[in-house]
Amino acid sequence: MARVVLVGNLAQVTGGVAEFHLPATSVQELFRKLGELHPALAPHLETGVAVAIDGQIFQDALLEPIGTDSEVFLLPQIAGGSGGQVLQSDISRRAAPRQAGENVGM
Amino acid sequence: MAKHHIEATVNGDVVEFLCETEETLLDVLRDTLNLTGSKEGCASGDCGACSVMLDGRLVCSCLVLGCEVSGRKIETIEGMAKGESLHPLQKRFLEAAALQCGICTPGFLVASKALLEKSPNPTEHEVRYWLAGNLCRCTGYDKIITAVMDTAATMRKG
Amino acid sequence: MGEANGHSKTNGHSYVGTRQIRPDGVDKVTGRARFGADYNLPGQLIGRVLRSPHPHARIISIDTSKAEALPGVKAVITRDDFADQPSEFIPAGEMMMNYKDVVRNVMAREKALYEGHAVAAVAATSVAIARRALKLIDVKYEVLPHVIDVVEAMKPGAPLLHDDLFTVGVEPKPEKPSNIAKRVEIKQGDVEAGFKKADVVIEREFKTAPVHQGYIEPHAALATVSEDGATELWTTTQGHFIVRAHCARLLGLDMGKVRVTATEIGGGFGGKTVVYLEPLAIALSRKAKRPVKMVMSREEVFKASGPTSGATVRVKMGATKDGKFVAAFAELKYQAGAFQGSPVQPGTMCAYAPYDIENVHVIGYDVVSNRPKVAAYRAPGAPIAEYAVESVVDEIAKKLGLDPIELRMMNAAREGTKAAYGPKFGPIGLEETLNAIKKTEHWNTPLRKWQGRGVASGFWFNIGGETSVSLTVNEDGTISLMAGTPDIGGLRAALTSVAADELGVPYDKVRPIIGDTGSLGFNFLTGGSRSAFSGSMAIVEAAKQIKADLCARACKLWEAKPDQVEFSGGYVKPLGALAEKVKPMSIADFAKVSGKTGGPIGGVGRINAQGAGPSFGTHLVDLEVDPETGRATILRYTVAQDAGRALHPAYVEGQFQGGAVQGIGWALNEEYIYGSDGKLQNAGFLDYRMPVASDVPMIDAILVEVGNPRHPYGVRGVGETPIVPPLGAIANAMENATGIRFTELPMSPPKVLKALKEKGLNKA
Q1: Domain-terminating residue out of C589, C609, C629
Q2: What structural domains and CATH numbers belong to chain B?
């Protein structure tokens, strides 16, 4: 079981619980399980955490493997990762731009 | 108000241009003569990025009006290299990594050339005070000063 | 010491680690290189921005009719030309931003929130007409009370900037809005128990003023929009892919239709990671149906682009008499400017990171006030926090009678130390930098009266991030390298060395360019000290593809099996018995037959670089104070910093020296000076006094290399750490020179003189 620690404000969302022991073999799986335990945590996991696995920091690394005895820290994201990805999905949702005046002419 | 018709020499070539009264020499160089090597960092004579030589004197071209240079001789960074050969200062700046972003580099080169023509054997103190009118935010000045002093030594030898 | 691993050396020659001439250098020393304002298009219009003269005002109405009617004016835009954006946080460099705020910062909507806030913009056929047009725009303001100082802004009853800003991170959730956007916290152990164990406890409050990144090149953008919506933009930026994303979002465009070229950039330091003019230039061009060029004046740069936070910081540290730190507390209050998003979070994480302390508690507040929205400035958040912490560390050393380097050594974070922000450090070089400083002649030189020596350490996390590069083999065997992170200080030289070494070709046969957004996959911006780290990693990947491809072609040509060939030193070489039948083939040889062997030869590296290693540094400064004027002169300065592996030593040294001098400016002279009317009084280089060549001595740079095991060459980012230690080091030197502990920055001559006079010390 991996030992998972929430750093900083993340523990506030779980009502103060900062430490977990969870079986998870990847970051993606870990996020899913944490999200199930604490639904209020899920949006934070999606948009802005860095993950340190056994001391190594990863940003935007959903597929990174987690070992059975790993120590995992979830930190506030130190830096932006795929700002592009977030925006891309958003653009396709907002296909018709709401412009006052000028026609975009696409 | 009609524009002024001005004739001057820039980097050895006779040029003629029209300019508004309020246009600076820097504006004319960059926007009319397409010599964009001189840069505008402040338009108030505080950063030296627009440094040029006017009748052999180092000036901030943002503090000179375009209509003031009638019949006068201007030298900019674009005239510093001779054909395919870089000026020793330009060469040394490259070897010594005396630039990072490079925006201040034309100003420093023009100013340093003026110094070495006036004072071929300057001390570090003299170099720093002469170049105090040129701002650099990237290098901390260290490698620039070293490059100028090294070039001075090289030029004195031959 | 860590070892670099996995990269192949060329036949005896290696460019990595040597001082090559940068490939873009000749253009830069001849004035040929084109920066943002050097681009022009035929038929272009000049764009200018109308800015709020009030620090805080409701915008009742904007009448642009007279401006639109002026001959020569081809387009006028206001808030009506930008669709509102819903609240959504996105990562942006080392801070988070919210699109609802971005659209309002680019063009004010309900309120003007700082003097200089953009309210309207025009595009006209000349500068003179554009200026006249701005004067014809009639804006009706309802002036509101303003607040600048962070502590003032936090008080209940302070003028409120946003009525929908409720502090995040406090329980119970506040019912009333305030100027406090966020409260953040990190905790480890039990500081109260720790303080009880301490033999000495020092508590101090510090104040810093906002400072600007001070890039010499103002913001500039040139946009042209076609009738079908295709948009081309040239801009001076640290991240053209990010610019594309922001503009596409704000203007409702498909990213694929927006092509952004990053011009050469005249300094950024974090300040050019956001958009100001770009969306305006595109909107104007779209309306006017002509290209629009916009350049900020220096005054606009100071008034309307993001400086860093001013802050109030309280630090309390406890140590036992042998020097062991047993408890560390800090409370950081950072100004975010008009919209939330100060770097207080990284500030809290960095504050005690250089030390191994069992009990740590740091609280941070992100506070809005009527100033331009802060943008990143080199290691955002860390210099302010380190100034406070390193000052207190020095006081502890004095109180306990311990050498300041020994005290830091005793508590230094090492490999395996658990950082207060969570994970354990891998191999790091803090101790090595402390030792390097201890060994210098500088450290051992005696001082005279009114001279003082100060030392301080600091660090930055550094990041990796998404990176795309391409390596193409041209028909003559030369290599075209395309990277996508703007080169702010020598990156192309470093990447060229790596590519040359990876492929085993001469340095001058590799030509690097920074590609536009249409030519490469996504690249996160140049920032976070990531471009050399990530770029070199991606080049290794691209080179691997080329090498594998050439080996495969060789196998087909020589009818050989994969284990009979290998790539080494620029050649595919036949092994064993095969070597008697065929001769090695160079990259150029393959290039000649590329068509016959499968097509053009090239490789791409598309990665999300992980494994960025932190860079620690220690700075040593000697200064002399003139008691009659309060002026401090820097006598000597030494930087020791861990680069992991310096791809190009001269440009790494350049980062150390440049960051140190920015720190000198921040510590001794730079500050935003506001009048009681909330207006900036020193919006120019004369009175916003940055260091000039006569203010500083040579900066000695000591390159420490504790390899980063997660990078093929052992590289650590180096760009940001150099600005973190100087503030503390200089404050400590001032204390040693004057006997006065300065808890407010900058320590400018009037302030120093005032403090000396109060103690009757203002005589030589």
Answers
A1: C609
A2: 4-79 (3.10.20.30), 88-157 (1.10.150.120)
Q: Other CB atoms closer than 10 Å to residue C475's CB: what's the count?
A: 12
Chain A hits for C345, Cβ within 8 Å: 8, 76
Number of domains in chain C: 2
Same-domain pairing of C541 and C651 = no
Residue C5, pLDDT score: 33
Q: What is the pLDDT of residue C92?
A: 61
**What does the pLDDT average to over C691-716?**
97
Whether B contacts A, i.e. 3 or more CB pairs less than 8 A apart, is: no
Q: Which of B22, B30, B137, B143 to mutate to test the interface with C (most CBs of C within 10 A)?
A: B137
The verdict on residue C512 lying in a domain is yes
Task: Count contacts between A and C (CB, < 8 Å).
Answer: 155
Q: Which domains does chain A have, with CATH numbers?
A: 2-93 (3.10.20.30)
Which helix (H) or strand (E) segment holds residue C251: the answer is helix C240-251
Q: Is residue C48 part of a domain?
A: no
Contact A91 C88 (CB under 8 A): no
User: Which one-letter DSSP state was computed for residue C655?
Assistant: H
Q: What does the alpha-carbon distance between residue A90 and residue B104 come to, in Å, rounded to a whole number?
A: 40
Spell out the residues 6+ positions from residue C150 whose beta carbon is closer than 8 angstroms to its own: C309, C310, C311, C312, C333, C334, C335, C365, C367, C369
Q: What is the pLDDT of residues A74-92, one digit of tens each?
A: 988 765 332 222 222 222 2
Q: What is the pLDDT of residues C471-516, one digit of tens each?
A: 999 999 999 999 999 999 999 999 999 999 999 999 999 999 999 9
Residue C29 forms part of a structural domain:
yes
Subunit contact C650:B103, Cβ cutoff 8 A:
no
Of B80, B99, B137, the CB nearest to C28: B99
Rg (CA), chain B: 16
Average pLDDT score over residue span C193-211: 98
Domain of C621, in residue numbers: 424-462+613-758
For the entire predicted model, the pTM comes to: 0.94
From the list B148, C55, C282, the residue with the least C-alpha distance to A104 is C282
Instruction: Give yes or no for B150 touching C (CB within 8 A).
Output: no
Please tell me which residue of chain C has the smallest CA distance to B81: C30
The yes-or-no verdict on residue A94 having pLDDT over 60 is no
- B100 CB-near residues (< 8 Å, 6+ apart): B138, B139, C488, C489, C490, C651, C654, C658
More confident residue, A97 or C486: C486
Per the CB < 8 A criterion, the answer to whether A70 and A55 are in contact is no
* Confidence check on the interface: ipTM exceeds 0.95, yes or no: yes
pLDDT computed for residue A97 by the predictor: 34
Q: What is the mean pLDDT of chain C?
A: 95
| Yes or no, beta carbons of C421 and A102 under 8 Å apart | no
Measure the CA–CA gap between C727 and C662, rounded to whole angstroms: 10
- My answer on whether C578 and C643 are in the same domain is no
**End position of a domain, from candidates C556, C574, C609:** C609
Instruction: Give, as one character, the DSSP assignment of residue B85.
Output: B
Nearest to C639 by CA among B45, B142, B61, B102: B142
Chain B hits for C20, Cβ within 8 Å: none
Question: What is the rounded average pLDDT of the residues C8-32?
Answer: 83
Residue C3 binned pLDDT confidence (cut-offs 50, 70, 90)? very low
Q: What is the pLDDT of residues C382-424, one digit of tens each?
A: 999 999 999 999 999 999 999 999 999 999 999 999 988 888 8
